[in-house]
Specification:
There is one protein chain. The chain has 504 residues and is an alpha+beta fold. 52% of the residues lie in helices and 17% in strands. The chain contains 13 helices and 9 strands. An 8-stranded antiparallel barrel has the order 1-6-5-4-3-7-8-9. Strand 4 and strand 5 form a beta hairpin.
Length: 504
Amino acid sequence: MPEQREIETKYEVAADTVAPALTAVTGVDHVTTDEVFHLVAVYYDTDALDLAANRITLRRRTGGKDDGWHLKLPDGADRREVTVPLGDSPAGAPAGDVPAGTSEDVPEDLVKRVRALVRGRALAPIAIVENERHTTYCHAVDGELLGEFVDDHVHSVSLLPDGPEQTWREWEFEVPDTALGRKTALAVDKALRAAGGERPDAASKLARAIDADVARRPVDLPKKIAHATAGQLLTAALAAYRDKLLWEDPRVRARGEDSVHQMRIATRQLRSVLTEFSGFFDGPARAALSSELKLLASILGAVRDAEVLAQRFEALDAGGEFGGAGAALAQRQHAAEARGWSRVDLALDSDRYFVLLDAIDAFIADPPLRARAEQPAVKSLAPLLDKRIRSFARQSVVLLADPACTDHDVHAIRKHAKRLRYASAVVDPVVRGDLRSGVKGLAKVQNRLGEFQDATIARDAIAGLAAETTDPAIAFRLGRVDAVEEWRAAQARDSLPALLRRLR
């Protein structure tokens, strides 16, 4: 599927406004014009407008050079557009006229991108937008395309109950995602504003067509973040981590690079807020969410762990000094990774997952906060976290010094350190001094614990393969690999007490 970053600025103008001569703009040497296109776009969403609430538009457009399905996703201040040709629509879907309008009409590749948002709810037309488009291309002296100016004369019909029918005119200026493109956009912006262009109230043609601004509002925070209450900071953190999880969902479905790792981090970040600050929440919903997120993280983790081990073994055997033992171990991990992906696919398409997402949304929309959550975050969350970091450090030093301390105990220390580190990111905007120093120390502790855990898991995998082989030569090579991992684990573990003492 073609995908590109879209950098454009919109302007609302009166019907009789004259467009400026863009050759007067610095850097624009000449312009070319295109034929006038009559575009017809049918916009899709759920009854609850789940896509619009997340600043996403899904349309099926005909009449121009880019006939097809267009999915526009937020990408910071810009947008990312994914396109699918009309010929890639499912069998039976209309190819030219306005579609009848069901989820079955939408290409599956695009449905996957928004499945975590629509969660099984039907996608159907919510608006039809017709547009007479006049296009002008701005070029540099060497012919390089600097940007595309469009003058749109728009007529829309909302298909929502009692929806309006409207007519308006707007300009758009779109540039390539380059430094020169952005510089051109700033220069053209001055010219279009001087000619009468104004920033529109509606964020998009769809928002104006349905006469509704349903974009999900960010959690309210005071202008000075240091004045935030504990409840405001915790709720804002949950919303940010929820959004991260939803952003990674389509990337995981598409097997995007590092996507499963980032999605697992998002689930752990959500859990860290619910766990480390449990005393600020009331009722059973918090514990239920934490339990479901833990399960999701474990499913994602199976893929991630196998992926990391495979890379570790391949690197270990890259020089050939272990006689292919590393490659054999990596092959087994790739097989485990494939099995893990099957579980991930099933989980992300399950009703249980969609129920979890609904529950997270409900929790954030109306968080069950206790009275103590009204306290300033700097006076409640920060001291609490500082106390827990110091307590964690003292207890961990004692545990590591105990001869009975097992690898499982060290793993428990690692999980605790990770929760505290994620929790510290919530408090970071309002803290300073000693706590920030402790947070940096936590990162070092977690990294060393991660090295220990990777080596320990690697040794388990080596033992599994060794138990199955009957070839003494292979067993010997596996023993050499195991010795390397044993040394790595010991080095990591031995360095922990000194790092932990700096946190106390």
